[in-house]
Amino acid sequence: MGNKLIVANVLHRPIRTIVSVLAVAIEVTLVLMVVGLTSGLLNDAARRTQGIGADIMVQPRGASFFFGLTSAPMPIKIGDRLAQVPHVLAVTPVLFQSNATGGGIGVIAGIDMESWNRVSGGFFYLAGGPFEGPYDALVDDVYAKANHVKLGQTLNLLNQNFHVAGIVEHGKLSRLFIPLSTAQDLSSSHDKASIFFVKCTEPGYTDDVLDTFHRLLPDAQIYSIKQYMTLMSSSNLPELTYFVTAMIAIAVSIGLLVIFLSMYTTITERTREIGILKSLGASKRYILDIILREAGLLCVAGIVVGLLVSLLARKAFLTAFPTLVVEMTFGWGIKAAALALAGSLVGAFYPALRASQLDPVDALAYE
């Protein structure tokens, strides 16, 4: 009896039901897209850093985990000092520059090809080859596909025209590479670098080399690549954590308020019906239960729609911005559903409580 009544109530006002379901769907979609985008951004950056093959990275104090936001205050000569430390095989400096592109903000890595090859093992070229001139550029296959870049094409980077000398396999640090000396000239950062990547003679010497580096450069940020991988999470980036938390709070508030308004309006319209139920012996608990179950049904429908919309939104987003990564995990799907359900039940609780406390005589007399 109760289930039939709930379904009938939901179907009786289709527009209100659709609005409630869409509100919960938007909540779920917003949570999954925000978390998916931030997680994808962090994890992709970590994977590409790991893909270099270095054992240690050295940055100036206060540098951002996001390399594109890192300035270049470190003298290039520091690399020579690092290279002299026992058990260091090679050191390569990198200078990062941010470049506005048609798909957003791209990060360009200025590299010294000789030392880069020693640390990373070199690029795998899908077309073309290494730099031959100061205004040659390399792009990875993901960037090339997303922006329809061909070998030999001219790209405008940092307000300069660059010749695409090679297309490389993705997975090493950046999607765009130019000669280090050119990056230094264009940014007026002569003899400077944003970061140094260090390759040890054997991975087992990493801790010993780290200890030596910390004594040699006490003011620098020095991490093993394994440490960096563990640090690349939103919990270690307070600004990102605040942003994600704020967006989730907004999403939950949307679902809560819409369910609250929907249930409150429902109670107002069904006052006489509730009075009839109570006159027939329905208890306060029964009325409370039936309202909360109706809210739960709307929420479950909204969650299902939200999950489907999230998948479609992810596909559309990656079509528009193919160089970005949106990671949607089963765990966050469960969390988004739980947040939506909790918000809906909280939003429906007061209307349900109010309905359960209606006096049958007053309810039957309600116009």
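That was protein one. Protein two is written in the same sequence-then-structure order:
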Amino acid sequence: MRVFVLLIVLLSATLLGSALSTLPSAQPVSSGLLGQRTQAACSFLRSLYNPSLEMVRGTPNSSVYYVASDNLLVEKAISSCDLTTSKAINHSISSCCGSGNDRMHEALLGAKIHLPINTATVYTVANSTTGKLFQGVYPTTAGGNYTVLWEVHNATGTFPDCTYADVTVYTALELRLEGNSTGARHEMDCLTAMFDGRGMVDEAYKDGSAMEHGIYQTYKLALYIYAQQKISGTYFYAEENLFRLQGPDGGFHTGYDQIGTYAGTQENTETTSIAMIAISKLSTNQLWRFSIPLWVIYLFAAWAVIGVGVVVIVLVLEGKKRKRSFQSTTENQS
């Protein structure tokens, strides 16, 4: 019996070694590094902030300000590093557009959205060149002519399921919020199929416009990282790819090719905000992280049950053996 127990232990150790050998080597998570990345991104977003409009422009050289998704996401992204600016953006959004939700991106902030997700309509909130001012702010005060737009996903068309990585993430987040774990897992399976180890290969990557075809979109990678943690509760090393896309000024480049080169792509507000939100979800307390496949967990749970059963049997048999030995000794002494 003891030999049998020893065989179980040896077999379990062999299986554990085999399973772990298939996983990537664990790497330490540096809370200091995460803090540096976040602060750099925060500085980049602050550099795009126009205090007269209390909004962040889309790109460094742009005069266009999006209520959503840009400022809706910036408000959340910088809330931990610049609460004053975050509150100012919230005030600016509410002055024209209520919560500023666009029926898609707020899923990233824990708000419910309608499924399936509709295509977008773009509303012009302000255009100073035509005299339509935002909160009465003149171009001379704002630093030049400006446009404020609000993109809302309320058009008649809908996005097909599991076609675009970003839409798939937002759908998965909503399904999780609804308690539909089966539907959320389906969307996560779609995302896993899209991820090729470098980025998200969705319809836009395969057959999109000239600026999308063959180019991985950084914000989609960030969304996948976020969804993995939020929905699947797992960590993996794609965030290292994400960090490489952060420029010296803290902004995240919008895209990259198969060798990780982001030359020719610019940094913008949406990508940087989503990257910040994804980074903020990385665990700084879990010093070592790697994903363990479910089959490994189930296997060792089964072996644990078997092991406990074997130990119980051994103890019972040993007890009976000692009892018989004691009885035999007593009888002989009699």
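Residues 1-23+299-328 form one domain. Keep this in mind for the problem set.
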